[in-house]
């Protein structure tokens, strides 16, 4: 019922993510108590949305590791509950570990793909959300992915599973394969000669559970051949059974246990549906608003034309991996609650292969006082096993938009419904198009939320969780290239706002409001000293590279810096504002342009101000990763971008 993950990520609201998790697990427990569901939920997907073509990018929190990490921890906490002790409400699962973000592109599919990833990119990008899932979210399971990483299947790599997830991060739970992954690395990748060797490699690497029949079929034979021992199996079983125990599966009648009172009356409650509406409202991003065209005034409109293949969308609004919605409000229905509507699809589906319906849409545009075009994508264009080949609107959608806009006598509002970014440069530069909104896949209440934003009942406050690139960007970046950083020698431009300096349609973090917000610093440290463990550490780490290894620093709470920022609403409408804080490391060999280090969402009344407190930890947020995958704290001047204010912090060392 809720918006797709990429949409809720646009809210930049950690408490919302946790509350969504709580509601999902309430309904999960209710279904379990009624014998209709289990307690294992393979969610969230926290892979980095590295490439804009990825069909499953919609399932993720976006391209930024800090945003994805905070989403992961918040959602998992909500999903698993906050019961005293070690009890679990449901068992969440962070997937797909690791560097999985290609499904089927240009003849390369996820079952055969070897992701060649540097230690640097693994540490500062791909692994960040998973680390937060385990350490901060205390997730009950992690799922390994189909692909190989540097020549090894992730589900057979002891360095990834046993050493990192279980060893360094101390997972309290189990590791599960993506469905049939063990069979995939035997049958498709030919990683081992026999199925017994494949079973043994997976179990010895640290895999506890196989989603699929492969281990059930071949493990007994692997034991008889001496490839693994019964003790190896006992360790895996202990990890699985301990989670079942934490779920209360051995505690008797469910109705007498925690959450035993949840039942059918707790599914699709009015409160849950209201949260779905609030999530949709917070997720909508106002990309452009020429001459303050929005919000529209219903009292000044006799008729509004609603055109486009997604104008009356229902199931499209919930994306993939969704249950049965409690009920839908389509964009057309939502708008009709405010003003009389006239409707034409314009295209038969988002593929929009013909223009035979364009004339009827143009007629509406000439007659209506305003036009809302609801265009974009759906699961036929972007989905699991379906990566896009381009970033433009499918088929003849662009022509439909241009023709309707040219015919319109009133303001033209363009809505893009999609999971991934779309190159709509043509619309951005079209003087006839008044405003553009990205509505993502807004969930069952999407139509209500869209109308509330268009007519000013809601002041939009969403921000883009991913960069919107121009179509030309794709020619420079094969989807198989996993490098985040640019390579000037080859002309490779790099990926995401952290490393890519080229032109964009809309940048990461972009999002307008019907109000104008300003920022001023009320409290901000100007320098911080990082204590070093020993003189030897100081000599080896700092004098040679002007950066201290995080492992050599005393990274305690004293290195948590607090910033107090006054956010003023200088407009005439109450609004919710997302304060974004970015960091730029000192000039030198550190290649990232900037990095999101914190964010905070606050509601500010018109003409008033709110003081926001945001914590930034030196070791976690001001560190960078070197080419060897070692996290370091550069000494010198770090520049923070706190909303529209720049502030420098001098980082020095003491011993």
UniProtKB/TrEMBL annotation:
One of its GO terms (biological process) is xylan catabolic process. GO terms for molecular function: alpha-L-arabinofuranosidase activity; beta-glucosidase activity; xylan 1,4-beta-xylosidase activity. InterPro entries: BXL (IPR044993), Fn3-like (IPR026891), GH (IPR017853), Glyco_hydro_3_C (IPR002772), Glyco_hydro_3_C_sf (IPR036881), Glyco_hydro_3_N (IPR001764), Glyco_hydro_3_N_sf (IPR036962), Ig-like_fold (IPR013783). Its EC number is 3.2.1.21. GO terms for cellular component: apoplast. The keyword Hydrolase applies. Keywords: Glycosidase, Hydrolase, Signal. Gene3D superfamilies: Glycoside hydrolase family 3 C-terminal domain (3.40.50.1700), Glycoside hydrolase, family 3, N-terminal domain (3.20.20.300), Immunoglobulins (2.60.40.10). The keyword Signal applies. SMART domains: Fn3_like (SM01217). Residues 577-646 form the Fibronectin type III-like domain. It is an enzyme of class 3 (hydrolase). It comes from the Eukaryota. This is Beta-D-xylosidase 1. It comes from Glycine soja (Wild soybean).
């Amino acid at each position: 019922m809720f918006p797709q993950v990429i949409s809720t990520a646009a809210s930049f609201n950690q408490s919302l993510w946790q509350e969504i998790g709580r509601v999902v697990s309430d309904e999960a427990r209710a279904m379990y108590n009624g014998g209709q569901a289990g307690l294992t939920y393979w969610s969230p997907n926290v892979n980095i949305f590295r490439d804009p073509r990825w069909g499953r990018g919609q399932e993720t929190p976006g391209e930024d590791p800090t945003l994805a990490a905070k989403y992961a921890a918040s959602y998992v906490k909500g999903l698993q509950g906050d019961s005293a002790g070690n009890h679990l409400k449901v068992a969440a699962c962070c997937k797909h570990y690791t560097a999985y973000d290609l499904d089927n592109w240009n003849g390369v599919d996820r079952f055969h793909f070897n992701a060649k990833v540097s230690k640097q990119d693994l540490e500062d990008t791909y692994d960040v959300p998973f680390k937060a899932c385990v350490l901060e979210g205390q997730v009950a399971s992690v799922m390994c992915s189909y692909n190989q990483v540097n020549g090894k299947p992730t589900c057979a790599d002891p360095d990834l599973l046993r050493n990192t997830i279980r060893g360094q991060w101390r997972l309290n739970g189990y590791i599960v394969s993506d469905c049939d992954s063990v069979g995939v690395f035997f049958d498709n990748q030919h990683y081992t000669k026999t199925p017994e060797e494949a079973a043994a490699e997976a179990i010895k690497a640290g895999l506890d559970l196989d989603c699929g029949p492969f281990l059930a079929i071949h493990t007994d034979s692997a034991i008889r051949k001496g490839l693994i021992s019964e003790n190896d199996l006992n360790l895996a079983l202990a990890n699985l059974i301990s989670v079942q125990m934490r779920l209360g599966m051995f505690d008797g009648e469910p109705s007498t246990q925690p959450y035993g009172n949840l039942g059918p009356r707790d599914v699709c409650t009015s409160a849950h549906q209201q949260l779905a509406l609030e999530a949709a409202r917070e997720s909508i991003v106002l990309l452009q608003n020429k001459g303050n065209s929005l919000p529209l005034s219903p009292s000044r409109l006799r008729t509004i034309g609603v055109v486009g293949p997604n104008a009356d969308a229902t199931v499209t609004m919930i994306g993939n991996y969704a249950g049965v919605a409690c009920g839908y409000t389509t964009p057309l229905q939502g708008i009709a609650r405010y003003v009389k509507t006239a409707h034409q699809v314009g295209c038969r589906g988002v593929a929009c292969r013909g223009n035979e319906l364009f004339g009827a849409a143009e007629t509406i545009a000439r007659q209506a006082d305003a036009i809302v075009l609801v265009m974009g994508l759906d699961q036929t264009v972007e989905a699991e096993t379906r990566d896009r080949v381009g970033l433009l609107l499918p088929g003849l959608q662009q022509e439909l938009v241009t023709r309707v806009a040219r015919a319109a006598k009133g303001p033209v509002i363009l809505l893009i419904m999609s999971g991934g970014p779309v190159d709509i440069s043509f619309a951005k530069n079209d003087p006839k198009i008044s405003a553009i909104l990205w509505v993502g896949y807004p969930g069952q209440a999407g139509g209500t939320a869209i109308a509330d934003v268009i007519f000013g009942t809601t002041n939009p406050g969403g921000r883009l969780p991913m960069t919107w690139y121009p179509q030309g960007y794709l020619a420079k970046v094969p989807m198989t290239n996993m490098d985040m950083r640019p390579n000037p020698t080859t002309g490779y431009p790099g990926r995401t706002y952290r490393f890519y300096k080229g032109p964009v349609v809309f940048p990461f973090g972009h999002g307008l409001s019907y109000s104008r917000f300003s920022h001023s610093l009320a409290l901000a440290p100007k320098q911080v000293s990082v204590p070093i463990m020993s003189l030897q550490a100081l000599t080896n780490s700092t004098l040679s590279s002007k950066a201290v290894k995080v492992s050599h620093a005393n990274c305690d709470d004293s290195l948590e810096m607090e910033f107090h920022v006054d956010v003023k609403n200088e407009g005439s409408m109450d609004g919710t504002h997302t304060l974004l804080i970015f960091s730029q490391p000192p000039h030198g060999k550190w290649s990232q342009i900037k990095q999101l280090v914190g964010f905070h969402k606050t509601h500010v009344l018109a003409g008033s101000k709110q003081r926001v407190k945001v914590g930034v930890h030196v070791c976690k947020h001001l560190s960078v990763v070197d080419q060897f995958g070692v996290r370091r704290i550069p000494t010198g001047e770090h520049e923070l971008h706190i909303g529209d204010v720049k502030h420098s912090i001098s980082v020095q060392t003491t011993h």
